[in-house]
Amino acid sequence: MQYTLTINQHKALEWGLNAQQAMLFAFVYECPSWTKPVTTIGGVYFTLSKSKITEELPLLTDKPDTAYRLLKALEVAGLIELSSTNSITLFRLTPKATEWNRKVDGSEKYPTQRQAPGRKKIRSTSEKNPTRVGKKSEAGSEKNPTNQVTSNQVTNQGTSQDLHAAPAAPSPPAGMVVVADNGPRCAIPPDMPGPKDPACKTFKAWANYAMAYRKRYSTWPVWNAKVAGQVGQLIDRLGADVAHHVAAYYLTVNDARLINGCHGLGDLLAKAESYHTQWTTNRQMNATTARQLEQTQANVNAAHQAAEHIRNGEAKPNAFLRPNR
């Protein structure tokens, strides 16, 4: 867990960051000093998984999706650039972000204290600077972490791949955006069917759907004229800003009917607005869940009806009880 955060309120207000975003950026700003660098086609990035954020900043959020949305907000603010491998989120600071702890002239706002000229240096063994104060904690314990601002300096963050090698065919988890507004966030495999031009209307939605489909079924979905039309209709109904999110989320829905149909685009299009709501609320709705809710409501209705009969004096004697003789 992160022990101390230093937030530059002046810059946070200047950049329009809210408290959550400022808190996260204060953490992200220090990450390059301890997290692993990753060399990609686009340059050097640093690893930072969503689970690492929730682990280090429990006061901020315990939901990985919220952590990712806050990272995206920092990217929109021009403070970080995001990328990803097939298993972890990558980031790097922008030139603007380096102003967080510096003045306009580039000097540090909080420089390390230097010894005044002519001041006598205190010996490290003197009483004014004792080498030992109380009982010393064991190395590596929470009282004496190896990293002064975090309790865990190990940053494998749930991935075992060689992070120094550029990924050949990344496949982000379903629900993550494969492409950003200014182009692909990861390399699109050359064997992916369908459009590959980011300027194409259906590119983002199709790329997200296709990558999530391959992750689930280990094969690419079919691309043809009918599928192209369905993707276009999906974008028209949901909007270009969210259609690609919903298309990827759809592949995570575990419903018997969808699984039997291998999550075809026709089923997505048939209830596009419903899946948009499920993506927004992060609550899946399948036939079993619907039946459970229906039965719960039926029980509530029956209880209300019985209570009404009792209030009106219409309660009937139990047919299984013998009348007194």
Describe the structure.
Helix 2 (19-30) crosses helix 4 and helix 7 (243-250) crosses helix 10 (272-281). Among the domains are: 9-101, Orthogonal Bundle (Arc Repressor Mutant, subunit A), CATH 1.10.10.10; 179-281, no CATH class; 289-316. It is α+β, with helices and mostly antiparallel strands and 325 residues long. 27% of the residues are buried. Strand 5 and strand 6 (183-184) form a beta hairpin. 37% of the residues lie in helices and 7% in strands. Mean pLDDT is 76; it is low at 110-116, 122-127, 140-146 and 159-177. It has a four-stranded antiparallel sheet, covered by helices on one side. The longest helix is centred in the last third of the chain and has 25 residues, at 287-311.
Strand ordering within the main sheet: 1-2-4-3
Helix percentage:
25-40%
Low confidence ranges: 110-116, 122-127, 140-146, 159-177
What is the percentage of strand-forming residues? Answer: 5-15%
| SSE succession | HHEEHHEEEEHHHHHHH
Mean pLDDT over all positions: 76
- Tell me about the biggest sheet? 4 strands, antiparallel
Which structural category do the helix and sheet elements fall into?
A: alpha+beta
Beginning-to-end CA distance, first to last residue? 75 Å
Please provide the count of β strands.
6
Whole-number radius of gyration? 28 Å
What's the number of helices?
11
Shape: flat
